[in-house]
Amino acid sequence: MLADPLYLDSSAIVKLVVDETESDELTRMIESTDAVLTTSFISEIECVRAVNRISADLRDVAMERLHGFVVLPLTDSIRSRTISIMPGALRSLDAIQLSTAIEIQDSLEGFVSYDFKLNEAARSFGLSVLAPGGRI
Question: What is the architecture of the domain spanning 5-130?
Answer without folding.
Answer: 3-Layer(aba) Sandwich (3.40)
